[in-house]
Amino acid sequence: MAELRRNPADADDTRRDDAGRDDPRPDATGPDATRQGATGPDTTGSDDTARERARLWADLVATARRTVADGLVVGTSGNVSARLGDLVLVTPTGVPYDRLAPGDLTGVDLTGRQVLGTLTPTSELPMHLAVYRATDARAVVHTHAVHATAVSTLVPALPPVHYMTAALGGPVRVAPYAPYGTDELAAHMLRALDGRSGCLLRNHGTVTHGATLDQAYDRTAQLEWMCRLWLTASSVPGLTPTLLSEAQLAEAGERLKGYGQRR
């Protein structure tokens, strides 16, 4: 579900800045801060810990902005998170990514309790936390990419039209539809992710995870590209795309393990 504005429940918290523009940031002393258990700026932990959080937040914001620049989301739809120990940094709901600043760092623990920041976390927080509880992922990217979302409405799994299918663990499954932001959707997603690092959400979008923000984002981009490839090939009248076999995907998976530079 696109988060083009703040959630309805947060509408009353919208303020005006000095220039008269809508300011989506809730007052840290107002009801939103109390409801979320917000703590304001990070004043806990060592200087090294604070710097590490600040660096990760900067990388997270850059990744979120990249999803917009690359056309994977529109407005503030989609969301990005990264895990640091038992802390999960996550994009806030309804705030344009180009407005996010270092002081907007938003973090929750693995139970979903907000421990850093005053902005309300994304409404898709249950999905992000479900991934971190069930896997060793350190980053999650959720988008509303056009081609991937289109494929999610057509098939139960993306047909293996390219060997990069192996990079996501095998044919990418489509999780059944459920309302956005619900535990039901998170449960559907986890089943679709079993043995995979990415899945499609029916009539909704994509979820990928990885050991780093770069890896999670690259998997999202690859998934969108493969969906576009399948849609293009399958649209040719009278012809059907050839698909890779399980053996071919297994071989590709082994070869991909050795891909890239060794440091």
Characterise the protein shown here:
The structure is a single chain. With 263 residues, this protein is α+β, with helices and mostly antiparallel strands. Helix content is 34%, strand content 14%. It has an eight-stranded mixed β-sheet, sandwiched between helices. Helix 4 packs across helix 6. The longest helix is centred in the first third of the chain and has 23 residues.
The biggest beta sheet reads: 8 strands, mixed
Please give the number of β-strands. 10
Report strand order across the widest sheet: 6-5-4-3-7-10-9-8
Rg, nearest Å: 19 Å
**Helix content bin:** 25-40%
Topology:
Blueprint: E1 15-16, E2 22-23, H1 31-36, H2 47-69, E3 79-84, E4 87-90, E5 107-109, E6 114-116, H3 125-134, E7 139-143, H4 146-152, E8 174-175, H5 183-193, E9 198-201, E10 205-210, H6 213-234, H7 246-256
Parallel strand pairs: 8-9
Antiparallel strand pairs: 1-2, 3-4, 3-7, 4-5, 5-6, 7-10, 9-10
Helix pairs in contact: 3-5, 4-6
